[in-house]
Amino acid sequence: MRFLHTSDWHLGRSFHRVNLLAAQRAFLDHLVETVRARDVQAVLVAGDVYDRAVPPLAAVELFDDALHRLAGLGVPTVMISGNHDSARRLGVGSGLLRQAGIHLHTDPADCATPVVLEDAHGPVACYGLPYLEPAMVRETLGAPRADHAAVLGAAMDRVRADLATRPAGTRSVVLAHAFVTGGAASDSERDITVGGVASVPAAVFDGVHYAALGHLHGSQTLTERIRYSGSPLAYSFSEADHRKSSWLIDLDADGAVRAERVDCPVPRPLARIRGPLEQLLDDPALARHEDSWVEATLTDNSRPAEPMARLGKRFPHTLSLVFDPDEAPARPSASYAQRLRGRSDQEIAEDFVAHVRAGRGADDAERAELRSAIDEVRTTDAAAEVAR
């Protein structure tokens, strides 16, 4: 059976204030054409269909159009909700959509109820595990702890139990939205740390033939059977070196996996350039970036006059300007966003404690209190979203 594995569309998201709706439409055109031209038998979408719980109307219309086109091809689509999606909103009408071959898995309680597909070699059971917020699903899944490894492990135990009741030779596929140990993150994924731990071991997926993962935005192979498709578009400059693609997965009669990357259309390449302003303006080697979206890091010891305007004359698509002087031992002038870049909520809170106490950081007990408070806020926010 041939699958097309994709994830993290983030419909409605912009890139440094650049509207990406046309680029997202181009990707979906490419996806539908790939399904048609490459004889894809099922599409797997591993979460984060939208960028936020209440997406803009234009993003909803784009999603609606994509579903109609996929249904029109007669190719089943199996889709789960991610941590950016509102599971309840995305799941509205799922019963009716199922009749058209669109299978939306948004309820954790249904994680062991597969979509059973058939090919010449027999059945393939596709299990959809939506993003599992530990504190919200622990009781539902009977997990021993409210952390990612425990709840995903409990969900996979249910999957394996159901699979054991299936006819001999049934092949199995799982869709999941999680941070699996060994994966490489970028700046554009939302932090899902709970209890100081964000990742789960790859071994949690033992017993299935293929795990189609979402959440991390870089296409990655953790094992031959466990892969991230990554996002189809770049959503931060940390993804400048990513090759954006989907996975074309062939599952043979014995469940062996053969994978091929299918490149996604690139609306405009990304470039991160660094150096003194005058060097960036004059360096002939940078000519290849003149039509790219650019993040420029200026290393001048003092801020040049009108740097953005001057950069814009050579690099008209400059979107981000960062100051990082070569000779500055400390950076008190760094922007708030710069100081927070790449840091978790826990690290930010601990830095604040050290700042207000003249350098004396949090001890173990205080760090535990901070972690508990952060987890409680996440749980409250998730509960509020469910209630909306």
Account of the protein in words:
Helices cover 31% and strands 23% of the residues. It has 388 residues and is α/β, with parallel strands linked by helices. It has 2 domains: 2-263, Metallo-dependent phosphatases (Purple Acid Phosphatase, chain A, domain 2, 4-Layer Sandwich), CATH 3.60.21; 270-378, no CATH class. The strands form 5 sheets. Strands 6-5-4-1-15-16 form a 6-stranded mixed beta sheet. Helix 5 (134-141) runs parallel beside helix 6. The mean pLDDT is 92. Keywords: DNA recombination, DNA replication, Endonuclease, Exonuclease, Hydrolase, Nuclease. Belongs to the SbcD family. Residues 1-217 form the Calcineurin-like phosphoesterase domain. It comes from Streptomyces noursei (Streptomyces albulus).
Give the key terms.
single chain; 388 residues; alpha/beta; Purple Acid Phosphatase, chain A, domain 2; six-stranded mixed β-sheet; 11 helices; DNA recombination; SbcD_C; endonuclease activity
What spatial form do the alpha-carbon principal axes imply? globular
Indicate the structural class. Answer: alpha/beta
Q: So, the CATH homologous superfamily of the largest domain?
A: Metallo-dependent phosphatases
Proportion in helices: 25-40%
How many domain modules? 2
The biggest beta sheet reads: 6 strands, mixed
In short:
This protein has 388 residues and is α/β, with parallel strands linked by helices. The chain is built from 11 helices and 19 strands. The mean pLDDT is 92.
